[in-house]
Amino acid sequence: MTSSWGEKKMRIRGVLTLGLIGALACATNASAQQSGPSAPHAGAPPADQLVEIVVTAEKRSTNLQTTPIAVTALTGSTLGNEQVRTLSDIVSLVPSFQMGNAEGYQQITIRGIGAQNSQPASDAAVSVNVNEVNVSRPIAQATSLFDVSQLEVLRGPQGTLYGRNASAGSVNISTTPPTDEFSGYGKVIVGNYNDIDVEGAVGGPVLGDKVLVRIAGFSEDRGGYGRNITTGNPVDNKVASGARATIIFKPTSDITGTVIVEHYTENDNDASVHLFGATGLSGLPGALGLPPEYVLFGGHDASNPWNVATGSDPKFRLNTTSITGILEWRIDPFTLKSITGYREQSSYTLTPLDGGSTNNFLLITGEPAHQISEELQAHYDTNRFHGTVGLYYFDENDNYSPATAVASGELLNLFIPITPARNPTEFFQFAEIGGLFKTTSEAAFAQGTYDIGAGVSLTAGIRYSDDHKTLLQKYAIYVDQPYTGFNPPPGIEQPALNFTSTTPKFGIQYQVDPQTMLYASYSQGFKAGGFDPGSFPAATYKPETIKDYEGGIKSTWLDGRLRTNFDAFYYRYDDLQVQQIVGLAIVTDNAATAKVYGLEAEFNALATQALSFDGSFAWLHARYGTYLGADPALPFATTDSNYSGRALDNAPDFTLTLAGQYKWNMQEGVLKLRMEGNYSSKFYFAPDNFAVLSQSAFAKGNGFLTYTDNKGWYASAFVRNIADKFTKTSSTVSLTLVGNLVQGSVAPPRTFGMELGYRF
Predict the structure, then answer these.
(1) Is 454 exposed, middle or buried (0-12, 13-18, 19+ CB in 10 A)?
(2) CB under 8 Å to 153, separation ≥6 — which residues?
(3) How many structural domains are present in the chain?
(4) pTM value?
(5) Residue 414: which H helix or E strand, with range?
(6) Looking at residue 335, which CATH number applies to its domain?
């Protein structure tokens, strides 16, 4: 690496700025052309019909019921009514969708496929895109959920149109653009755990219809769902804020330029890990045979599962900034589009891993990262053919630093004694594991759908991707060096990795009548391999590939009062990437094969103008095929464990959601009562399928009572997790040094409160 990232960043910014200015200038000077076909829009349906939903899953606007993909679309009003503040809040709203949070790192799983670790520099299997720009780092994937116009979850591999890190699916977030008229909203939420959440947005035209602006922001300050009983301080609290500015330029009727700038900051104790047990004394062959470290030193744990008992408080810091530039030029029947994205972040996480009240082992990590991307799209739309071709470029520098394991002299003297013995109360630099990861990805893609007549359409697509990865590794095991702060060793360049893939898609769609559509497809997905920096030289792992056979039926019944969508799928995975903690580091294995198949259903029903129902159901069979690998719960096992036939992580066999809503029309407004419940069968967090690494079957319920007056004011009372059910969202076996503890994160307890808002 001959030049610094700072120098490269300045050059890239300069090139992109000149490119965007040049594109705008060329577009402005171009002769005006007739506008292309208008996109479908929801409009205002009759009071006794369901609202039409428009999605952009195929990178163009289409009706949900004629889009041949398993996709769930949540509108901005739905997200607001459901009090969605993080991606974990949509788990009950999307079939086969699971969400965990490990030390601040988002763990998204769709149909049993996803990343299950908290290692910086690791890639997700579910692509998260905000305003069509991929958010590569999992730690930053839940920072844009304010003033959102729509959130779409695409289930299944999206290898053709979305490419890298979309082998399991895609989450597409669209923030609210400014409108042609002055509009906005403001709201305040006050709830238990001293929760105060303020959010609002305002915008409209500033130079006639040529320039539109919208400003949005939020601030959330919530006390902890639990506390550290050793220090008395809160854990799992939230102190975060964000702001976004959106500017739309319309120099001509055919040209639209959009610039979106966003900043997010968080500073709290929201990176705690809760103790669920230990595997050291399990009695299984290869188990540690010793109690946890905190027990050996006379410590205690927390009896309340929402609390922790650690000698230090967990710390979580995150700052992100993003700039998105979108330029569209419509020349009927063509649309040309450029999407430029820049993101940077800094983070700091301190995680005590003792499990109990001792203060002997800390993990301190950071992840400053920078990414830049450019996507060029060309769309061609006629009555019978819809085609998209594009080019994609992505460049990221992800600096996994600090990556420091800090241990007390008391702990090291017990397991790694030296003479003379260390000071028991002093902290020592145990290990530095990390480095600078650089990823460059280039791709070309094309997809087209042709109406051959009689209601039958054929789809074909292909994407070619080339991923190039390098690592400047920083690795050292010290064990006897006093800790004085982050002190990384010199970096050593590892041999570069290069991965190429070609992912096709073929589909057929049959519009039986205006209310019913059948579809079937075959597609492939690809997720590149990479580096594991936990050993020296860094171990590498192979790409994972997937073949997906899928079919479904989408129907609208009873004069638009009932909507039902069904989907069936079969996956064949090869070299599925599985992460576990082995020794001192997170290790990525390639399971030889995995088979996943299942059924999904969603429905919306308007029984009367006042009474409506909605829900979803998923049956999932997700199992490893052939897989032999190490088991962190059995560190002294002499042979690999056989995981063949065991359930994949985060893959419950059954999930079910049912909700009902009734509204009363009153003289000055509307009163709505909504009740909802969701059920999940048992699922596991690790390939060994041990009970201590599982979440048992559970059911939860939520309730909302909202009054909206005719002038735009509304007030809502809400309660989530009514029965105060305790559930885990992640779980893993930690280091042998602390006794192979089973630790992870938990879902919120019962929360309730009031929301007061105004829309204009």
Answers:
(1) exposed
(2) 71, 72, 74, 90, 94, 97, 110, 169, 170, 171, 172
(3) 1
(4) 0.91
(5) helix 409-415
(6) 2.40.170.20
